[in-house]
Amino acid sequence: MTQVKRAVRFALARAARMPGMQRPAFAAFARLFPDQPWQATHPFDRGLGTDTGGFVPQWLLQPGVTEADQGSPYAGCQPECVRAALASLPDTRNYSFIDLGCGKGRAMIVASEYSFHAILGVELSGGLVAVAARNAALVARAHPERTRLQPMQGDAAGVALPDGPLVIFNYHAFPRALVGRIAERLAAAASPGREIFYVYENPVCHYVLDALPGFTRWFAAKVACTDEERGRSPGDEDTVVVWRAGGPPRTAHDGADAGLRETVPGWGVELHPGLASGAGIPTSIG
């Protein structure tokens, strides 16, 4: 990193600590560091006027954290991946959708295309929650018939779970230990009368759910970007896996137990039907 970039990074991180300045700092970062595929305006946002694109590093989301303590940066999920997973579910009219680490709310907006009892998002960064709230208002004006989006600032591991069946979404944002705490809590909350689906895009910590009693695979797919989406993410496809716990007896989709292999240590995985589920568990992810 050049001295100029270091100085700019320091200035942006300092600005992000000031009240009301985190969103302007995000925008400034996007203009000054346009080298990430996510920085291009995503076609998903054009029709609604929303802002779910961009790439925001962890040091800007939570100024003051050290490199070793950083979690994942913000980058929007692939809409087609979310749609493929939600289309695999049974009737969700009585289910609450919760995006853990919702960022700017892109997955919540995709979920609003489907029938859910409630659509919630939890995000630690106040700056991202502010953007998600603005996006929620835009969706409500454009589509008053859809379920209202409710983003909130909070800790994904401790968020209050609504009563009734749940669909949990996570676009790889958490380290192994946090995924484990979340999954254990969800498994304990599931019962024959309360079904819980865990939708995990880019499931880097897939082995945590595969090893947890109570969760079983429901669906798995490698989903290609649409022609419009190409160039707005690191690759042209992404993997999504869905687990379920509790609820009535159901038959999983064909291929749900396909294996996954790590493509970028700690950052990316892809579906690999030639591997058995649980094979090749990485040890590099913290």
From TrEMBL:
Protein name: Class I SAM-dependent methyltransferase
Tree of life domain: Bacteria
Signal peptide region: none
GO molecular function: methyltransferase activity
The entry's keywords: Methyltransferase, Transferase
GO biological process: methylation
Organism taxonomic ancestry: Bacteria, Pseudomonadati, Pseudomonadota, Alphaproteobacteria, Acetobacterales
Keyword Flavoprotein in record: no
Gene3D superfamilies: Vaccinia Virus protein VP39
